[in-house]
């Protein structure tokens, strides 16, 4: 049965949520700020926020649900709306302390100076084009950050003050723009189109008796057993290990099948559960377009095209088509959202105001970057491209329930492939590298889907918008300050070179290695890329129109833009498996059979995420060398 079926109220009823959740919200925000950076930098294997649904938040919410049941009708009796309110605030704050902002912030400010050398000449080529307050350029400060120091307070804190102040300001403006954009899209996506928001259903499943039964316990135990066995087998060799990943493409060495060498088949309880819950048209779109792009890669390779990312390569071609698809779908979503604001009634006027506030926040964001020397026009183009990508990725989460979204190109790829690197300019590219790497590099935790989920929950459970914003701003501040403090301390105390080097070395230097490559071999407009980007626009337009207007076409266009990404490589099979079980269940047992299995698949998702959190704690406390659980590798 549901955790709080006695107190459950129907979604949509008005109640003053959050009044009995002040302490849990604050404590949860503090714990997220403390635990997430520590797990990312020190634990490495079991990270709490590696997908749109955070295993850390699920663990906190499970503890909150257990506490509420133990204390129900005693000294603390929160309503379901109180609990969901708390979950919504934690859910939005989850990414901030990880790859959504903090994880890349400090390393990106220090890495360019530390890794600059006479051989790469980053100082002369790029760092002399940015102001001294834009990044940490003091040699002693970056040395203490990467090599460690016995006393953190003795490091050159002043060298960090101005860059951190600037980037905290620009980060807050960025998150504010996402908030306003979510409010602008809310009416169209939530009220008019009534998107299903599968990830919202997962988070609140324990509060619904029909979706949380004894079958849910079975679903939880299955991933717990297999993942725990695998983690134990890493230390106890007599225990068997059950592989969750099969690299079926590794043996394909002969032409033209060598183009499939990196392909894998992955087993994941959480992703299989998502495949069962999401609409069939979206599920088919994900695994169907994935296999279509595999077949197209094979044909192109057979015809003699190189498999790599260079000009004329198969990967470049598919990324160009993907980029075109993103731009077309974003324009479609914005156009339909704008049409929903037509009219003079009070609600539509409020939506129009949020649209203007979004535009204003984007302008402030760009103007802040122009103080560092970025061209206003290129900054505006950058944010237009990123907003397009951000909106489409959010639609994939809100309508498709995909827990790990990604695009296989970066915003500056569109700029340089369209205009050429010299036309964009090296100063502009050096400045763009920072917001791109800090805020846009890891699309798995982009903030807009979290805000959309929060507003969906607000609509369902009747939160006060003013109270929601107040608690959200408070929790944002607590999480942000705590996470930055922990990251700063760990990197200085242990040395950033000794912790997870993905965050401290690889990602922060990636952009400057790319700039060095472009500087060595500059290029103008890439006609090959542009030609196939236009072709991708055409394909995405045709699929979208067919999906909207042809009754016999029931495949969503969302899978087209995710087909070539690395995350879909690990997600296609679990989604296919969930879709297959759903289709067979509906055919053999109808809707009753489908609904009877939903609790089991909710349990699968919760089980894998909770098991990830459990082994994260075990590995951190006991220094256990286990194996990754989620996301699947």
Describe the structure.
With 633 residues, the protein is mainly α. It is 67% helix and 1% strand. The protein has helices spanning 22-43, 55-70, 80-93, 102-114, 122-125, 139-147, 158-192, 198-204, 214-233, 269-277, 280-302, 314-339, 346-370, 376-400, 411-419, 421-424, 426-440, 448-461, 465-495, 501-520, 527-549, 558-562, 566-622; strands at 245-246, 265-266. It has a two-stranded antiparallel sheet. Helix 1 (22-43) packs antiparallel against helix 2. The radius of gyration is 24 Å and the shape is globular. It starts with 21 loop residues before the first helix and ends in an 11-residue tail after the last helix.
Write a short abstract of this structure.
This protein is 67% helix and 1% strand. By secondary structure, it is mostly helical.
Helices and strands in order:
Elements: H1 22-43, H2 55-70, H3 80-93, H4 102-114, H5 122-125, H6 139-147, H7 158-192, H8 198-204, H9 214-233, E1 245-246, E2 265-266, H10 269-277, H11 280-302, H12 314-339, H13 346-370, H14 376-400, H15 411-419, H16 421-424, H17 426-440, H18 448-461, H19 465-495, H20 501-520, H21 527-549, H22 558-562, H23 566-622
Antiparallel strand pairs: 1-2
Helix pairs in contact: 1-2, 1-3, 1-19, 2-3, 2-23, 3-18, 3-19, 4-6, 4-17, 4-20, 6-19, 7-13, 7-18, 9-23, 10-23, 11-23, 12-14, 12-21, 13-14, 14-15, 14-18, 17-20
List keywords for this structure.
2 strands; 67% helix; 633 residues; mainly alpha; 1% strand; disordered N terminus; two-stranded antiparallel ribbon
Helical proportion, percent range: 55-70%
The structure class reads mainly alpha
Radius of gyration (Å): 24 Å
Global mean pLDDT = 91
Give the termini separation. Answer: 34 Å
Order of SSEs, N→C? HHHHHHHHHEEHHHHHHHHHHHHHH
């Amino acid at each position: 049965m549901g955790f709080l079926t006695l107190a459950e109220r129907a979604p949509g009823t008005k109640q003053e949520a959050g009044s009995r959740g002040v302490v849990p919200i604050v404590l949860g925000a503090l714990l997220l700020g403390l635990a997430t950076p520590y797990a990312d930098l020190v634990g490495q294997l079991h990270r709490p926020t590696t997908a749109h649904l955070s295993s850390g938040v699920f663990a906190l919410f499970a503890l909150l649900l257990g506490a509420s049941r133990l204390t129900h009708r005693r000294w603390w009796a929160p309503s379901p709306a109180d609990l969901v309110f708390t979950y919504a605030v934690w859910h939005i704050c989850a990414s901030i302390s990880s790859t959504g902002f903090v994880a890349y912030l400090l390393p990106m400010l220090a890495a360019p100076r530390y890794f600059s050398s006479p051989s790469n000449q980053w100082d002369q080529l790029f760092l002399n084009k940015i102001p001294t307050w834009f990044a940490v350029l003091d040699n002693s400060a970056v040395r203490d950050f990467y090599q460690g120091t016995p006393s953190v307070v003795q490091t050159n804190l002043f060298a960090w003050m101005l860059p951190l102040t600037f980037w905290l300001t620009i980060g807050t403006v960025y998150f504010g723009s996402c908030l306003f954009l979510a409010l602008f899209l809310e009416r169209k996506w939530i009220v008019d189109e009534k998107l299903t928001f599968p990830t919202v259903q997962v988070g609140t499943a324990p509060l619904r008796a029909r979706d949380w039964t004894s079958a849910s316990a079975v679903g939880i135990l299955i991933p717990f057993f297999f993942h725990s066995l695998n983690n134990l087998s890493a230390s106890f060799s007599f225990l068997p290990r059950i592989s969750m990943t099969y690299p079926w493409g590794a043996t394909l060495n002969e032409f033209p099948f060598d183009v499939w060498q990196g392909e894998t088949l992955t087993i994941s309880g959480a992703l299989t559960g998502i495949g069962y819950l999401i609409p069939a048209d979206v599920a088919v779109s994900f695994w169907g377009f994935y296999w279509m792009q595999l077949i197209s890669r094979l044909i192109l390779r057979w015809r003699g095209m190189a498999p790599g990312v260079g000009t004329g390569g198969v990967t470049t071609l598919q990324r160009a088509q993907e980029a075109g698809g993103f731009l077309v779908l974003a324009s479609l979503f914005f156009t339909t959202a704008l049409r929903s604001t037509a009219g003079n009634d009070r609600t539509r006027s409020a939506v129009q105001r949020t649209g203007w506030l979004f535009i204003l926040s984007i302008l402030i964001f760009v103007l802040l970057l122009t103080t560092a020397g970025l061209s206003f026009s290129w900054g505006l183009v950058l944010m237009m491209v990123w907003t397009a990508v951000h909106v489409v990725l959010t639609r994939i989460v809100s309508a498709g329930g995909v827990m790990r979204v990604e695009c296989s190109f970066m915003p500056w790829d569109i700029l340089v492939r369209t205009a050429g690197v010299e036309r964009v300019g090296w100063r502009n590219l050096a400045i763009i590298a920072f917001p791109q790497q800090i805020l846009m590099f890891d699309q798995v935790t982009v903030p807009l889907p979290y805000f959309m989920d929060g507003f969906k929950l607000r609509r369902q459970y009747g939160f006060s918008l003013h109270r929601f914003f107040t608690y959200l701003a408070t929790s944002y501040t607590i999480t942000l300050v705590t996470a930055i403090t922990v990251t700063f301390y760990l990197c200085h105390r242990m040395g950033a070179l000794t912790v997870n080097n993905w965050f401290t070395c690889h990602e922060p230097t990636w952009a400057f290695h790319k700039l060095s490559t472009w500087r060595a071999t500059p290029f103008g407009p890439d006609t090959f890329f542009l030609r196939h980007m236009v072709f991708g626009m055409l394909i995405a337009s045709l699929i979208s129109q067919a999906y909207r207007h042809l009754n016999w076409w029931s495949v969503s266009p969302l899978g087209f833009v995710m087909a070539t990404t690395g995350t879909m490589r690990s997600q296609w099979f679990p989604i296919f498996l969930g879709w297959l079980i759903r289709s067979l269940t509906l055919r053999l047992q109808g809707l009753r059979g489908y609904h009877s299995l939903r609790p089991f698949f909710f349990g699968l998702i919760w089980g894998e995420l909770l098991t990830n959190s459990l082994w994260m704690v075990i590995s951190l406390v006991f220094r256990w060398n286990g194996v990754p659980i989620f996301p699947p590798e």
